[in-house]
Amino acid sequence: MSKRTQIASCVLGALALGNASIVSADQLQDLQNEEAKIHKAAAQSQEKINNLFEQSQEMLAEYRNVIDSTESLKVYNDYLANLVADQQRGIDSLQRQIDSIDETRQNIVPLMFNMIDSLEEFIKLDIPINIEERTARVQRLRDVMSNSSVTVAERFRVVLEAYQTENEYGSKIETYAGTIEDSGQQVSVDFFNLGRTALLALSKDQKSAWAWDNDSRSYQKLGDEYLNSIIQAVRMAQGLVPEDLIKLPIKAAE
Fold first, then answer.
1. Which residues of 2-34 are buried (b: 16+ CB within 10 A; e: fewer)?
2. Which of 50, 90, 116, 253 is the most exposed place for a label (fewest CB within 10 A)?
3. How far apart are CA 170 and CA 40, in angstroms?
4. Which range is the signal sequence, renumbered to this chain (predicted)?
5. Are 116 and 141 in contact (CB under 8 A)?
6. What is the value of pTM for the model shown?
């Protein structure tokens, strides 16, 4: 080859090598850029994963709280349900009582009339302790029963109160003033009753004494041997002397 040909070949070879170096550098840069993008994408993906994990943990905690709250609400709801059921039973009971009020009134009014009649008959057969007061009490009961402004409950209360008062006569020791008939004459006396065991009368001049005989429904005059004891009994009932043993004419039980 001539020198000119050799020089041309060298120039062409150098140009070829230069172009190859330029191509390799561009590819390397592209690879580096792609790698950077991959790293960046991986970092972003990891960040998303971390965020999703944190969210999942928060959701898990919230879920557990919801479960706990649900259990608590269930227990509380069961408690309220029992209360409501108990209140409903009370309401049902009250309603039944309300429904039966009219029937109760219909039954209790005849009962009260029977009680008053029985009380009046008992007073007539009983020893005449405070007989005027007791007879007047029965009449007041009848007046109450015919008074439309008095409720059924109040009427029943008054009737029971009268029975309670009658019951107390059986345990009272008391004295009070009054009159009895003796030989066709009215005599002023001080009555003394030892419950329903004995009813005695002492004249105001303390010279005569009588005892009630329930069989004959009359006062029987006592002998002088009882006079001092009856005077003492009246004084004891009046609170003038202390209570003590006394001799009284008491009819023995048969």
1. eeeeeeeeeeeeeeeeeeeeeeeeeeeeeeeee
2. 253
3. 112
4. 1-25
5. yes
6. 0.57
- Residue 245 half-sphere exposure toward CB, CA atoms < 13 A: 0
Domain locations along the chain = 102-168, 173-237
What order do you get walking across the sheet with 185-194 strand by strand?
173-182, 185-194, 198-203, 209-213, 218-221
Where residue 130 falls (left for φ over 0; alpha for ψ -120 to 50; beta otherwise) is left
Q: Which phi and psi angles does 191 have, rounded to 5°? A: -80, 150
Distance in angstroms (rounded) separating the CA atoms of residues 168 and 171: 6
Q: What is the pLDDT of residues 216-250, one digit of tens each?
A: 999 999 999 999 999 999 999 998 988 888 888 88
d(CA 244, CA 115): 39
SS3 content of the chain, % helix, strand, coil (to 5): 65, 15, 20
Which of helix, strand or coil describes residue 177?
Answer: strand
Residue pair 187/180 in contact (Cβ under 8 Å)? The answer is yes
Tokens of 62: 């919230």
